[in-house]
Amino acid sequence: MENGLEPEKWDLSLWKDILPSFDLWFDVGNDDIHYVSHILPTLDWEGGNLGIRLRYEPKDVSNFLGEYKEARNHAEELKARTQGNGKQYNMDLFPKDMIDFLKTDLHKYFTVRFYILDPAKKDVGQEALGEPM
Asked: Which strands make up the sheet holding 48-58, listed edge to edge?
């Protein structure tokens, strides 16, 4: 497949540096642990900083890529059929690129996910809360 759209090359780790994310850090005392017990990064945590990361990311990279490729291939086939009769038509068929594709259904392919941050590493630990309500 051309244009680097091979599904095996598209995993979420390739996206992490370009996806919008927002880190929230809280200073939680020992008396308040019961409020945050569901997002503790380890059982050894003894209070202090506790963080979560909200990241806007694809729900399913393979599905997103597959549907985009299908729509692009369909547009290219239609364009080739109309130009097969020797006439040149100036037309933009949907989708002309990935941005055009995402303009119509961004919410269908992307969502906000929440991750627990390990205060020792300041990095993503594990998915914590899933998708927002």
From this structure: 21-28, 48-58, 110-118, 123-130
